[in-house]
Design brief:
By secondary structure, this protein is of the alpha/beta class. Helix content is 13%, strand content 24%.
Length: 173
């Protein structure tokens, strides 16, 4: 619910039950509900990307609603696909599967600006690298990051410390 998936390479969401994982047991259908998500292809995204791919032997019960799926140029992407010729199939449902009571998804059209504005543990303390990475996603310039050196390295933090004061240690609380 309410995610941005940007420049995912060759797959965004996938489900794959391998036969050897279920040896001796009857496979059980997986369940996936996807609501209010944004998939944006980028320059590292493979041609023909789908929002949800399936493989293996197990079927997937699926409900999808209000998901935006576009390539790097903003053209629509297909929702479903398979990356093998196995028997697994995606079974569409008309209602969400196991939806938590009281959960309201944000409209997908509002998700990307919200995520880019609020992402990060300390968004009020973003450094120049953080700002550049978020701008790269917003403007479709971003690429898959394989190493911290590709984005300027680890953040430089000012050291903080103070001497241990046992009087401030309260074991009774």
């Amino acid at each position: 619910v309410d995610n941005v998936i940007y420049n995912p390479g060759w797959k965004a969401l996938h489900y794959n039950l391998m036969a050897n994982e279920w040896a001796g047991y009857t496979p059980v259908n997986g369940q996936l509900t996807a609501v209010g998500n944004v998939l944006r292809g980028g320059f590292d995204t493979a041609q023909g990307l789908r929002f949800l791919m399936i493989g293996g032997i197990g079927d997937l019960d699926y409900f999808g609603r209000d998901n935006i799926m576009v390539d790097k140029w903003g053209d629509p992407l297909e929702e479903l696909g398979s990356y093998e010729t196995g028997r697994a199939r995606i079974i569409r449902h008309s209602q969400p599967l196991d939806w938590p009571a009281g959960l309201t998804a944000m409209p997908a059209i509002d998700v990307e600006p919200h995520v880019l504005t609020t992402a990060g543990a300390r968004r009020w303390d973003r450094d120049a690298h953080d700002v550049r990475l978020i701008a790269d996603v917003a403007e479709s310039r971003g690429e898959i990051i394989d190493h911290e050196d590709e984005v300027g390295g680890y953040p430089v933090q000012t050291e903080t410390r103070r001497a241990f004061d046992p009087s401030k240690w309260n074991l009774d609380d």
